[in-house]
Amino acid sequence: MSDTGEESLKHLDEMTCLLYLERQLDRARGLEVSAHTQECDRCRTLLRALERESRLLTRAMLEDTEPLPSRLAQFQERARRSMQWIWGLAFGLAATGIYALYTGYVQPWQQQLEQAGFGGSSLLNLLIFQGAFWKGWQSMLTLLEVLALGTLGGLAVMFFRRRFRRGSALALVFAGLCTAMALPLPASATEFRKGDRVSVPKGEVIHSDLYAAGGQIRIGGTIEGDLVVAGGDVEVSGHVLGDLLSASGQVRMTGQVDGSVRGYAGNITIKGKVGRNVMTCGGDVNLDRDANVGGSITSFSGRLSIDGHVQHDVLAMGGQANIAGNIGGSARIRSDELNIDSSAEIGGPVNFEGNKPPQVSDQAKLASPVHFERLTHGPNYSNPHYYVWQIIWTSAYILFGLVLFALMPKFSVEALSSLEKYGASAGLAVLVGAGGFVAAIIACCTVVGLFIGVSGLFLWLASLYFGLVLVSTLIGQALMGRTSEFWPLIGRLAVGAAILRILTMIPHAGWVFKYGAAFWGLGAISLALFRRFQPALATQTPPTAQPLPPNTTIGGPLPA
């Protein structure tokens, strides 16, 4: 026993080995421990084991993240696979909502436009690739173009200024600008006339488009292209082979237009022949007894009178509609009053929505009785379809938020945190809400920014819906607590969206909650974008300890 106690006193204990590894022993004692480990296998093995444990512990403390254990990782993978059905359900609901939206809103309007003479892409071609909205604008450098280009340039600099620091990116941008400036401009075959009195006398032929602006405009000759007029008093008694587009106080068309007549005026009178369609917006629109329209009529006016002949359909919205002529197709009218005289003849169905029943003469020749539906102002709370659509729109908000949170999780969290900065979000909501819309409209006025302007409008609307999603999520977090996990966040979004939808259904006050939440969310999105693209300031961070190499000895060189 005495020999065994003596032998144990000669060996090193764990505390002495740990103090040696941490270099806490004095020099004399450290030399004794080092000499002893060279002779004693037991103490040398203990020292190496403690050194290995100390090294592993140091590395674990320096690591930022630690991998999950195998059991937890397998459980997470099984949970992820079990949630795949939710995505299928989400996309199924999204397809159902899109179908309901298309059949309830898009398809009826599409049918009405087709009845008015606009086919699948004719309206897009009219706005972008045909007529006065495309021809001649390349050569017109106006104040609107300067404002649009300046706005777009400022936005580009704001969003990409961090990337401009790189020389390659800056060189690429300048190369693109130089290439765009070097492109040849399309040839313009357009004639411009302006003055107090602008006239094209009878017998004169203009072999191109004509743009006329003045107080009094008289067109008696032949225009082989489109005629675009802007003036106080306009009279067209000649022959226009293209379209007639007008923005005037008073327009009288007594000649012939082979294309379509489109425009806005306080008083529009058509006495001649129109080869295609008529689309007007004005105070008083009159189709004279001698007028003949080869296509359809689309009118938004205070008073519409049809005494002439219309080959196809009539789509009208306004205060009062009077029909005494011949309509070859159907008529869909929404106005306060509808009067159908004894000389009227309508070959298709007549659908009327108004505040008063229509006044129909017994001698009028109608293909079928007038279908009357009284206008309802505001939502119809007694109709079950109203609540079905509220559920569909709420589901659409939830699906929209689900996709956005899945695609942009970090930015969504930043926007949610910015939403709580009430003053900054409200200020940016007013600035971006009004400024973004105005900038997009200005860009749409020019061919240079037409595509960008339309895209900006869609982005502006999408941002408003994203703002509703953010506010709904904030409401859900206020009731159920904060979270950063994906599916609990979607659950809070669903609760908040339902509450916000109920608030928007309140009579006479629902629009305040709806638009207030949308613009509040838009301000939060703008604030999050501003913070993200703002250059980060350099901060002094203390140096962090680096992990040790695998074979480093902490307590000095360990003998072999």
* Multimerization state: single chain
Helix proportion range: 40-55%
Q: How many beta-strand elements?
A: 22
Could you report the average pLDDT, rounded to the nearest whole number?
77
**Biggest sheet character:** 12 strands, parallel
Number of helices: 15
N-to-C span:
32 Å
pLDDT < 50 runs, ≥5 residues: 1-9, 117-144, 163-171, 179-188, 551-560
Q: What's the alpha carbon Rg, rounded to whole Å?
A: 38 Å
User: Given the C-alpha coordinates, what overall shape results?
Assistant: elongated
Q: What fraction of the residues are assigned to beta strands by DSSP?
A: 15-25%
Which class do the helix and strand fractions yield?
A: alpha/beta
